[in-house]
Amino acid sequence: MKSKILLIVEGEKDEIRILGSESHGLLSLIGGDYEIVPFANPIYELYDAYVNGEYDDIVSYLRINKGLEIDSDILSKNAFSAIYLVFDYEPQDHKYSDRKIKELLSIFNNETELGKLYINYPMVEAYYHLKSLPDYEYNDRVVSLENLNGKNYKKLVNTSTCLRKNNITNINLCYIIMQNYIKAQRITNSNGQLIDHNKILNSQLSLKKERNEIYVLSTFPFIAIDYNYEKTMEKIKSKLKANYIKLENIKQPN
Questions:
Q1: Backbone phi, then psi, for 217, in 5-degree steps?
Q2: What pLDDT, on a 0 to 100 scale, did the predictor assign at position 253?
Q3: pTM for the full predicted model
Q4: DSSP letter string, the chain
Q5: CA separation for the pair 78, 47 (Å, rounded)
Q6: What is the pLDDT, as a whole number, of residue 2?
Q7: What does the angle CA 225 – CA 23 – CA 234 come to, to the nearest 5 degrees?
Q8: Are strands 34-38 and 5-9 parallel, antiparallel or unpaired?
């Protein structure tokens, strides 16, 4: 089996910028040999194409429909050692349903098998939705689903973020990862190393039903934690120092 990592991302611009390179961005924590494939469609197109399609694995679908090239003598299921999928939640999409998003998470739940799905709530721009560093209000930050669309949310983030999208420093990256990691632990009421993405979704669906809101949460950074927990946490602790402890102390619900 090859040791190459496959990263399937929804968009062709923001996700690529967030991944960065081996010297900066999330790829600096992942490293290794990797292939990035933009899906260029919402997650519900993935559902239609893959779940309702005639493919045994996502790599076979990408080879036929997205131009993914691998050696002809390698089976699709053996081409990559790990597969990560990054998509937006986008409940405003006309193809959205609670059932579909639950089913996708249940299918793509293991990076060494069919792949592991990371959902950005409500979309990839949540990665930048920090108003300060550290941002002690982030744990409670929600977004209303009323009249939600990509343009409105992007404008909201652009007018409130303290980050420069084209210049995310190593310290910025550490804050982004840690703030979202702590928030996910809070949402799932867990202190474990691994984040339960099904629990996150269930919490989001409950909040959506009760208040027509969801928590702002970027799970994109969790790829680095899942891929190399020790390396990622060591870097975060060394960069954030005292603020790491301060952030740890606010992770439990009020």
A1: -155, 130
A2: 42
A3: 0.93
A4: ----EEEEES-SSHHHHHH-BTTBSTHHHH-SSEEEEE--S-HHHHIIIIITTT-SSHHHHHHHHS-----TTS-GGGS-SEEEEEEE--TTSTT--HHHHHHHHHHSEETTTTEEEEEEBS-GGGGG--SSSS-TTGGG-EEE-TT--HHHHHHHHHHH--S-TT---HHHHHHHHHHHHHHHHHHHT--SSS--HHHHHHHHHHHHHHHSEEE-B--TTHHHHHH-HHHHHHHHHHHHTHHHHHHHTT-S--
A5: 23
A6: 53
A7: 35
A8: parallel
Q: What percent of the chain has pLDDT over 90?
A: 65
Per this entry, what is the length of the chain? Answer: 254
Tokens of 100: 């579909």
Which tokens go with 4? Answer: 């190459």
Query: Does residue 73 carry a pLDDT above 70?
Result: no
Sorted by where each begins, the domain ranges of the chain are: 5-248
> 219 CB contacts (<8 Å, ≥6 apart)?
118, 119, 120, 121, 180, 184, 195, 197, 200
* Whole-angstrom distance, CA of residue 213 vs CA of residue 134: 24
Summarised one tens digit per residue, pLDDT across range 75-107 is 777 789 999 999 999 998 899 999 999 999 999
* Cβ neighbours of residue 183 closer than 8 Å, sequence gap 6 or more: 138, 139, 215, 217, 251
